[in-house]
């Protein structure tokens, strides 16, 4: 039923299918155990992702999962533009003070931005889905604020960014990550942190990242990672998009990027645990290989911000999606308590 509702009233149907592969995370309580012998998982090699393969990792298929991973092409409740807009209408009030400390800390931000190579103050940088400017605060430490543009679809989030003294010289504009108002070959760096989970068509957003970059420019996309624990998977699938690591790499490669790399990040007090997924779990980078648009051809947009949504469809997506999101507000507190209780050096 939930799966049917996730699809929206437009396409009410029951889903049945094969459990797709998911990833065993280093530092998770799954990693390093011979789970295939225990009958909990099956393994296969990742031949397409040399960087990941070099870490001697296998793909793991949790057989105990209750929920079937949803393909990214079937948006979750808040993975819609209008729903995300209203979600941030309220969340922006507490975002910096209540949400970020549990998921996206300053040390994580420095760690995640490091592969972006912000190595000159003169770089032209776009921060897409920049919201209240938390990530931009990390960017302007390395790049002159006048060269940085913050784009977001939420005026409420952007209003918070405008209040920040360090960001007063940044350009701050409303816009859609899947249809960027920048010319082709414009920026040296494309940064987007914690926004992809709301994009109904993530591949399109990454194709846009490619288009707006200059030749040799670098995209750095920071986003969630998919949980392996069944309850966390359930709430993740109801709430928003938690891509698998291999999906990020696939999207980047399809958009035309070369040198695609994925760096794992996470809050310190999780002690590397990734079984519950993470809202900020990885930083993916890629370099634009040729000037001009992305070689990837896509059909028409799957969702237009201007297109009206039936009020009832909107309401049930919004209420159920926001409720599911509450689980992920509480999770870092649970992990923090575990970190306090379990002796240091022991897994939690
Ligand atoms: C979790 S916040 C991240 C904000 C900021 N990057 C940070 O690091 O704190 C996600 C942001 O993405 C924005 N967003 C969601 N969908 C978007 C879209 N299609 N285009 C532009 N921004 C979008 C939301 O409005 C929100 O401000």
TrEMBL record:
GO BP of this protein: alkaloid metabolic process; methylation
Where is the stretch described as SAM motif III? 211-224
Per the record, the coiled-coil ranges are none
Matching entries from Pfam families are given as:
Methyltransf_11
Q: Where is this region: SAM motif II?
A: 170-183
Domain of life where this protein originates: Eukaryota
- The keyword Methyltransferase is annotated on this UniProt entry: yes
Transmembrane region positions?
314-337
Q: Would you tell me the protein name for this molecule?
A: Methyltransferase
The protein's organism comes out as: Lithospermum erythrorhizon (Purple gromwell)
């Amino acid at each position: 039923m939930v799966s049917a509702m996730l699809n929206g009233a437009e396409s009410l149907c029951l889903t049945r299918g094969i459990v797709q592969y998911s990833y065993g995370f280093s530092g998770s309580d799954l990693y390093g155990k011979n789970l295939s012998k225990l009958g909990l998982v099956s393994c296969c090699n990742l031949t397409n992702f040399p960087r990941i393969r070099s870490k001697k990792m296998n793909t793991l298929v949790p057989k105990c999962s209750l929920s079937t991973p949803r393909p990214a092409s079937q948006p979750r409740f808040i993975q819609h533009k209008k729903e995300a807009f209203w979600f941030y209408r309220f969340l922006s009030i507490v975002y910096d003070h209540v949400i970020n400390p549990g998921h996206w800390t300053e040390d994580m931000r420095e760690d995640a931005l490091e592969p972006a190579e912000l190595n000159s103050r003169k770089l032209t940088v776009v921060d897409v889905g920049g919201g209240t400017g938390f990530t931009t605060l990390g960017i302007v430490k390395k790049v002159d604020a006048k060269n940085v543009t913050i784009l977001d679809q939420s005026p409420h989030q952007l209003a918070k960014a405008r209040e920040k003294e360090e960001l007063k010289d940044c350009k701050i504009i409303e816009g859609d990550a899947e249809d960027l108002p920048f010319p082709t070959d414009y920026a040296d760096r494309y940064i987007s942190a914690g926004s992809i989970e709301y994009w109904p068509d993530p591949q399109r957003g990454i194709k846009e990242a490619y288009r707006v970059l200059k030749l040799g420019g670098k995209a750095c996309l920071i986003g969630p990672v998919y949980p392996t624990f069944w309850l966390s998977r359930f709430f993740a699938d109801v709430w928003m998009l938690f891509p698998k690591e291999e999906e990020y790499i696939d999207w980047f490669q399809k958009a035309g990027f070369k040198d695609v790399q994925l760096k794992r990040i996470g809050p310190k007090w999780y002690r590397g645990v990734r079984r519950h997924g993470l809202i900020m779990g990885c930083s993916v980078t890629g370099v634009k290989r040729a000037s001009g648009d992305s070689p990837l051809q896509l059909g028409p947009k799957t969702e237009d911000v201007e297109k009206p949504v039936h009020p009832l469809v909107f309401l049930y997506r919004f209420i159920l999606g926001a409720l599911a999101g509450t689980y992920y507000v509480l999770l870092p507190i649970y992990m923090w308590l575990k970190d306090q209780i379990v002796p240091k050096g022991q897994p939690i």
